[in-house]
Amino acid sequence: MGRGVEIQTPVIIAFAAGFLAVYVLGISVVNARQRVRNIHDVDRQFRSRRPGWFRRALADVIPQPGREIESLEQDLKRAGFYGRSASIEFRATRNFVVLALLICGLALAVSLEPGSDLPRPVLIVAGLSAVVAYALPRFILHLQAKRRLDGIQRGLPDALDIIRMCLTGGLPLRDCLDRVAQEVEFFHPDVAVELEVVRRHADIDSMGKALREFSRRMNAPDVNALASLVSQTERTGTNVAVAVTEFADGIRRQFRQRAEERAGRTTIRMLFPVILCLAPPVFILLLGPPTLQLKTFLQQARNPGGVLDTASYGDTVVATPAE
Predict the structure, then answer these.
(1) What is the mean pLDDT of residues 233-243?
(2) Fewer beta carbons within 10 angstroms: which end of the chain, N or C?
(3) Over residues 272-283, mean pLDDT
(4) What is the mean pLDDT of residues 83-103?
């Protein structure tokens, strides 16, 4: 009876670990769908409910410095997660996975037979899995934020061109943002979402404050320059359309210069693969035939009567003059 219980314990733990992994994967998929992808999702994100006390406590189980939490919140906003509790949800889910892996590994190691060599490898695997589960979501989130920010910077000149046309037609800047967000949603959905967020912030407060918040969320040189430019033109009363046009042309020029810079870097980076991949075949083609000919010559020279045949030299009698 006791033997049966010992056999069933690892099976139960393995089943619980598998169920937990599937459950966490389902939660991750559901939370990933809460990302803002179009302007219609903005309302749902801003109206999201505050998480319960359990998730807030779970988010603080693994302490993090304040600077890391600020960086996490900025990456979440860059990636399109605008919910009020996005940071808490992210940290709570990650901590839950880490703790579950550690607890399952510890329970499985304890349930093994005494004197077995498996507990130590199980603990090592559980620890490494916990480290990967802690670092991998943050890395993926950073990649998502970087990719979305690059898309926003690429689509910003097109949106500024439409804003210029709307401003030239006599529309105020707030109405222009609403109109442009609907026009560029199909081609640049991320830019449309950001313009919609800026417009809503401007309705609540001022346009300058909304642009500063936009600059703080993205923290990109082009976005910072745009926010400063529009704020300055509104304060001084100059023509916003002309400033926006010049700024859009400047962004396109910078994109071209950055592309040329990346092309120059690519040339240097391709130098080493070219040397490592093409140099061996070239040396084989150039040195292969002479090497084979030299090998054939040496083999023939050592044959009887050859140039390098030492036996033929030993048999030769050299005549000496008589004294």
Answers:
(1) 72
(2) C
(3) 81
(4) 84
Backbone angles phi, psi at 185, to 5 degrees: -65, -35
CA 76 to the chain's CA centroid: 13
Q: What whole-number distance in Å separates Cα of residue 195 and Cα of residue 182?
A: 10
Q: Which pLDDT belongs to residue 323?
A: 44
Query: Which tens digits make up the pLDDT trace of 280-291?
Result: 888 888 888 888
Same-domain status, 144 and 157: no
Per DSSP, the residues of 144-178 read: HHHHHHHHHHHHHHHHHHHHHHHHHTT--HHHHHH
Q: What angle do CA 17, 22, 28 make, to 5 degrees?
A: 125
**N-terminal to C-terminal alpha carbon distance within the chain:** 113
The pLDDT of residue 5 is 46
Same domain, residue pair 97 and 127: yes
How far is C-alpha 308 from the chain's CA centre?
66
| 238, 226 contact by CB (below 8 A) | no
22 and 158 in a common domain? no
Domain that holds residue 224: 151-255
At 197, which CATH number?
Answer: 1.20.81
Q: Which of 92, 31, 30 is nearest to 64 (CA)?
A: 92
Q: Does residue 135 have a pLDDT over 60?
A: yes
Amino acid at the residue 106: L
Is 50 within 8 Å of 85 (Cβ atoms)?
A: yes
- Please report the pLDDT score of residue 10 as a whole number: 61
- What is the rounded CA–CA span in Å between residue 145 and residue 84? 17
- Asked whether residue 109 carries a pLDDT value surpassing 70, the answer given is yes
In a domain, 316, yes or no: no
User: Six-digit token pair at 189?
Assistant: 């959905």
Q: What is the pTM of this model?
A: 0.69
- Rounded CA separation 151/134 (Å): 27
Instruction: Return d(Cα 239, Cα 15) in angstroms, integer.
Output: 67
